[in-house]
Write a structure and sequence with these properties.
Elements lengths: L21 E2 L37 E7 L7 H4 L4 H8 L4 H21 L10 E3 L5 E3 L8 E7 L3 E8 L9
Antiparallel strand pairs: 1-2, 2-6, 3-4, 5-6
Length: 171
């Protein structure tokens, strides 16, 4: 999803968003087990931590990132969320944390709609894995989508893949 806010396209960023949602190019993605903080080669990841997955040529991983929005411009993001998500966001004490959480979940909904345009951003339903990660509740005939999201006061990001366990971290 790339474009300025309020463009009016389905799946576009909310009005009032002062920035750009961008798809992270594959060349800038960090491989599992690699760290941008260390010089030289990093040791291979332990097998128990990164289980093997069939990553075939047909697999597609979409990564989206953006700066966290200003807390005063949250309305456009809030309308994308479910009532449960809105209540959870309201429990954050600091406005900047609430803004980042709300934007991350809104961005995830937009990213899923980018992958499956037949589903509106507000129609996605989520559950939780035992570890607390978001889980897309499958709606037939949609593919088995796996997601991860991350947020801090400065940035938000999410990743969407089909049939692959994925993760993203903005810090």
């Amino acid at each position: 999803v790339k474009g300025k806010a309020g463009a009016g396209r389905p799946g576009s960023a909310p009005a009032g968003f002062m920035g750009e949602i961008r798809r992270v190019p594959e060349s800038r993605r960090q491989a599992p087990g690699k760290s941008s903080r260390r010089r030289g080669k990093s040791p291979p990841p332990p097998a128990w931590r990164y289980p093997r997955q069939d990553v075939s040529a047909r697999s597609r991983i979409d990564v989206f990132a953006m700066p966290a929005p200003d807390p005063s411009a949250l309305h456009g993001w809030t309308v994308l969320l479910s009532d449960e998500e809105q209540a959870r966001a309201a429990r954050f004490h600091h406005a900047a944390d609430r803004a980042a959480w709300t934007a991350a979940h809104g961005l995830l909904r937009l990213a899923l709609t980018h992958r499956c345009p037949s589903v509106a951003p507000g129609a996605w339903q989520f559950g939780r894995e035992p570890a607390g990660r978001p889980l897309v509740l499958r709606q037939d005939p949609l593919p088995d989508l796996r997601v991860s999201l991350s947020h801090c006061r400065a940035a938000v990001a999410c990743v969407v893949a089909e049939g692959l366990d994925v993760g993203v971290d903005v810090e």
